[in-house]
Amino acid sequence: MASTQASKLNLDEFIGTALSATPSELHPFFESFRSLYSRKLWHQLTLKLFQFFDEPLARPFRVDVFERFVRDFETKINQLRLVEMAVKVAKDIDNPTTHLAFLTSLAERIDTEKSKQAHVLLLASIAHTKLVYGDLEGTKNDMDSAWKILDTLEGVESSVNAAYYGVAADYYKAKAEYGPYYRHSLLYLACVDPEKDLTPEERLLRAHDLGISAFLAETIYNFGELLMHPILNALDGTQHEWLKKLLFTFNEGNIGKFEALAPLFPQEPILQENYAFLRQKICLMALIEAVFQRQSNDRTMSFQTVATETRLPLDEVEHLVMKALSLKLIRGSIDQVDQKVTITWVQPRVLSREQIGGLAQRLEKWVNDLNAVEKRIAPEVLTSA
């Protein structure tokens, strides 16, 4: 009873101080806090706290409410919801040391075995804080710890996955590792609603960075998944709209369009600096597209054909094909004597709408050819029968 009375007195003191220090528009929240806390309605209190933390007028008071009020009953509420509140509140702490201490202190109080998702979310948030303040090694260590747990879980909430993939993408961006950034950024977008969860500026930056990473990643040779993602709409009507056109150009393997857009590269110095790599990449994608467009029984190509498709000098064709083989974009063999390339396999691709349309036309032709054969053979079979 004594402890209950002490808690009641602390609650009254907290509520009284809050009512005198906050705008009148926030007072109904604190009255609700008093009522729900007194009745031990922890779930309803959690929901009311989220409403409070999302209220713009409450922003100057969020840290104080969490530290003086929420911590009193933090073990009684859902631990994942607790961490989500803490992550939201931590954004108001500008001092790097205090910010990190706020999150790491909570990590020490969370029961990792009972709430692994909460632990992952907190580790990802701590990693992101370290990244913002320049601790790349600490970021990577926390990312790895989070992944070890996340990789064992099933039915993970989107907010937890988003936190991990979001910080992983930002880490690889800071390291200029384009392939990992591209993959983790797309995974992050799969966990959020860009229209609701990202500002227009954030959508534009994400689309821009995805485009740049797609161009410069040494392992990305199919942009279909990105081209079908609505995030690219953020580039429309901006100074970066030409990057969207360039993405479609690469996916088509269209060297003519690539050369037409090349004068714009100086607007993105990193593309200009890597022009030689991009030129080779568009040639490889032109080769892939040329193979993809052919029937499976018509994939033996002369060096001259490859040179024409890729607009390369004849003496550079063999090197290009060897590059495609080493990257596992194609499988096959090279006949140096007859100067021919036989392709037995081409890397599976996420197709753009235009490529799907082309594939549909090829399937329709194949069906028509089968029907023609059937009509020709059927009378002969009936006659012999």
In whole angstroms, the N-to-C terminal distance is: 99 Å
Low-confidence stretches: 1-9
**What can be said about the biggest beta sheet?**
3 strands, antiparallel
Principal-axis shape: elongated
- Cα gyration radius (Å): 29 Å
Annotation field: number of helices: 20
Q: Give the helix level as a range of percent.
A: 55-70%
Structural class: mainly alpha
Q: H/E series, N to C?
A: HHHHHHHHHHHHHHHHHEHHEEH
In words, what does this structure look like?
There is one protein chain. Helix 1 (2-21) packs antiparallel against helix 2 (27-38) and helix 2 packs antiparallel against helix 3 (42-54). The longest helix is centred in the last third of the chain and has 32 residues, at 353-384. The chain has helices at residues 2-21, 27-38, 42-54, 62-68, 79-90, 96-109, 116-132, 136-150, 158-174, 178-190, 194-197, 200-216, 224-227, 241-252, 255-261, 269-273, 275-292, 303-310, 317-326, 353-384, and strands at residues 300-302, 330-335, 340-346. By secondary structure, the chain is mainly alpha-helical. The protein contains 20 helices and three strands. Residues 1-9 have low confidence and may be disordered. The chain is elongated, with a radius of gyration of 29 Å. The chain has a domain at 351-384. The termini are far apart. It is 67% helix and 4% strand. Strands 1-3-2 form a three-stranded antiparallel beta sheet. One of its GO terms (molecular function) is structural molecule activity. One of its GO terms (biological process) is ubiquitin-dependent protein catabolic process. This is Proteasome 26S subunit. Belongs to the proteasome subunit S11 family. Residues 180-348 form the PCI domain.
